[in-house]
Amino acid sequence: MKPETPSPTQQPLRAAFVNACAGLRHLWRTQRNIRIHSLVAVLMVGLGLWLRFARLEWAILLLAIGMVLTAEAVNTAIEAAIDLVHPDYHPLAGAAKDVAAAAVLLASVVAILIGVLLLAPHLWSLLLRK
Q1: Are 27 and 73 in contact (CB under 8 A)?
Q2: I need a surface site. Which of 10, 48, 51, 57 has the fewest CB within 10 A?
Protein backbone atom coordinates (compact mmCIF):
# COMPACT_ATOMS: atom_id res chain seq x y z
CA MET A 1 0.00 0.00 0.00
CA LYS A 2 1.33 3.43 -0.98
CA PRO A 3 1.84 5.83 1.94
CA GLU A 4 -0.36 8.90 1.91
CA THR A 5 1.19 12.13 0.74
CA PRO A 6 0.99 14.73 3.48
CA SER A 7 -1.31 17.64 2.82
CA PRO A 8 0.43 20.92 1.96
CA THR A 9 -0.15 22.17 5.50
CA GLN A 10 1.62 19.09 6.88
CA GLN A 11 4.61 19.28 4.53
CA PRO A 12 7.79 20.87 5.78
CA LEU A 13 8.44 24.24 4.20
CA ARG A 14 11.47 22.89 2.34
CA ALA A 15 9.36 20.15 0.72
CA ALA A 16 6.84 22.73 -0.45
CA PHE A 17 9.62 24.67 -2.21
CA VAL A 18 11.05 21.47 -3.71
CA ASN A 19 7.61 20.59 -5.10
CA ALA A 20 7.13 24.11 -6.47
CA CYS A 21 10.53 23.95 -8.19
CA ALA A 22 9.57 20.57 -9.68
CA GLY A 23 6.47 22.27 -11.05
CA LEU A 24 8.58 25.03 -12.59
CA ARG A 25 10.89 22.44 -14.18
CA HIS A 26 7.88 20.57 -15.60
CA LEU A 27 6.44 23.83 -16.92
CA TRP A 28 9.74 24.78 -18.58
CA ARG A 29 10.31 21.32 -20.10
CA THR A 30 6.81 20.76 -21.44
CA GLN A 31 5.37 24.16 -22.34
CA ARG A 32 6.72 26.00 -25.38
CA ASN A 33 4.70 29.13 -24.53
CA ILE A 34 6.34 29.58 -21.11
CA ARG A 35 9.71 29.64 -22.88
CA ILE A 36 8.41 32.21 -25.39
CA HIS A 37 6.93 34.38 -22.61
CA SER A 38 10.19 34.10 -20.68
CA LEU A 39 12.23 35.20 -23.70
CA VAL A 40 9.98 38.25 -24.15
CA ALA A 41 10.32 38.97 -20.41
CA VAL A 42 14.12 38.86 -20.64
CA LEU A 43 14.03 41.20 -23.65
CA MET A 44 11.77 43.62 -21.77
CA VAL A 45 14.05 43.55 -18.73
CA GLY A 46 16.98 44.28 -21.05
CA LEU A 47 15.11 47.22 -22.56
CA GLY A 48 14.21 48.44 -19.09
CA LEU A 49 17.87 48.37 -18.08
CA TRP A 50 18.93 50.12 -21.28
CA LEU A 51 16.23 52.79 -20.91
CA ARG A 52 16.90 53.14 -17.16
CA PHE A 53 13.36 52.52 -15.97
CA ALA A 54 12.31 54.22 -12.77
CA ARG A 55 11.29 52.17 -9.73
CA LEU A 56 7.57 52.44 -10.52
CA GLU A 57 8.17 51.37 -14.13
CA TRP A 58 10.07 48.32 -12.86
CA ALA A 59 7.24 47.45 -10.49
CA ILE A 60 4.67 47.68 -13.27
CA LEU A 61 6.84 45.67 -15.68
CA LEU A 62 7.48 42.93 -13.12
CA LEU A 63 3.78 42.71 -12.28
CA ALA A 64 2.95 42.34 -15.98
CA ILE A 65 5.60 39.64 -16.44
CA GLY A 66 4.42 37.83 -13.33
CA MET A 67 0.80 38.03 -14.48
CA VAL A 68 1.57 36.36 -17.82
CA LEU A 69 3.85 33.65 -16.41
CA THR A 70 1.36 32.87 -13.64
CA ALA A 71 -1.53 32.68 -16.12
CA GLU A 72 0.49 30.25 -18.24
CA ALA A 73 1.26 28.08 -15.20
CA VAL A 74 -2.40 28.02 -14.09
CA ASN A 75 -3.48 27.21 -17.66
CA THR A 76 -1.08 24.26 -17.74
CA ALA A 77 -2.33 23.00 -14.36
CA ILE A 78 -5.97 23.25 -15.44
CA GLU A 79 -5.29 21.41 -18.70
CA ALA A 80 -3.41 18.62 -16.90
CA ALA A 81 -6.16 18.21 -14.31
CA ILE A 82 -8.85 18.08 -17.00
CA ASP A 83 -6.87 15.53 -19.02
CA LEU A 84 -6.52 13.38 -15.90
CA VAL A 85 -10.20 13.54 -14.96
CA HIS A 86 -11.66 13.41 -18.47
CA PRO A 87 -9.14 12.10 -21.06
CA ASP A 88 -11.81 11.80 -23.76
CA TYR A 89 -13.29 14.87 -25.38
CA HIS A 90 -16.17 16.46 -23.53
CA PRO A 91 -17.67 19.87 -24.39
CA LEU A 92 -17.31 21.16 -20.81
CA ALA A 93 -13.71 19.97 -20.62
CA GLY A 94 -13.03 21.74 -23.91
CA ALA A 95 -14.71 24.90 -22.67
CA ALA A 96 -12.66 24.87 -19.46
CA LYS A 97 -9.43 24.47 -21.42
CA ASP A 98 -10.44 27.23 -23.83
CA VAL A 99 -11.26 29.62 -20.99
CA ALA A 100 -7.93 28.86 -19.27
CA ALA A 101 -6.14 29.58 -22.55
CA ALA A 102 -8.18 32.77 -22.93
CA ALA A 103 -6.89 33.89 -19.52
CA VAL A 104 -3.33 33.61 -20.84
CA LEU A 105 -4.31 35.53 -23.97
CA LEU A 106 -5.92 38.31 -21.93
CA ALA A 107 -2.90 38.55 -19.62
CA SER A 108 -0.59 38.68 -22.65
CA VAL A 109 -2.58 41.42 -24.39
CA VAL A 110 -2.63 43.51 -21.20
CA ALA A 111 1.12 42.94 -20.78
CA ILE A 112 1.73 44.10 -24.36
CA LEU A 113 -0.28 47.27 -23.70
CA ILE A 114 1.67 47.85 -20.49
CA GLY A 115 4.91 47.35 -22.41
CA VAL A 116 3.87 49.90 -25.01
CA LEU A 117 2.90 52.40 -22.29
CA LEU A 118 6.24 51.90 -20.53
CA LEU A 119 8.45 51.94 -23.62
CA ALA A 120 6.76 54.60 -25.77
CA PRO A 121 7.79 57.70 -23.77
CA HIS A 122 11.42 56.52 -23.50
CA LEU A 123 11.71 55.55 -27.15
CA TRP A 124 9.95 58.73 -28.26
CA SER A 125 12.41 60.88 -26.32
CA LEU A 126 15.32 58.96 -27.85
CA LEU A 127 13.94 59.61 -31.34
CA LEU A 128 13.46 63.31 -30.65
CA ARG A 129 17.06 63.67 -29.39
CA LYS A 130 18.56 62.35 -32.63
Answers
A1: yes
A2: 10
